[in-house]
Design goal:
single chain; elongated
Length: about 90
């Protein structure tokens, strides 16, 4: 016998997502959006390119180059992404 998933009212659903896209209005404007992790791929080059240049010159670089991630909530989105499209 095949079981059906229980029906859940949308007011009971809460969202937590990863790799936040500030242009995805459907997610962050949802009434039960909690938070997301922003990985900032747009910042990778700022950290990697200078270290690549150092490596080419034979200089020592760290074994790991980490981009700081940040928790984005409805309360802080405009501080982290002031130019976001969905207001």
């Amino acid at each position: 016998m095949r079981r059906r998933a229980p029906r859940v009212a949308t007011q009971d659903l809460y969202l937590g997502v990863q790799n936040f896209d500030p242009d995805n209005c459907q997610i962050w404007t949802a009434s039960h959006f909690i938070a997301t992790a922003a990985y900032f791929p747009e910042r990778y080059a700022e950290l990697i390119v200078p270290n690549l240049v150092k490596a080419i010159k034979g200089e020592t670089i760290n074994q790991q180059i980490l981009v700081p991630h940040e928790l984005i909530t409805p309360e802080n989105i405009s501080k982290v992404y002031p130019e976001f499209a969905c207001k």
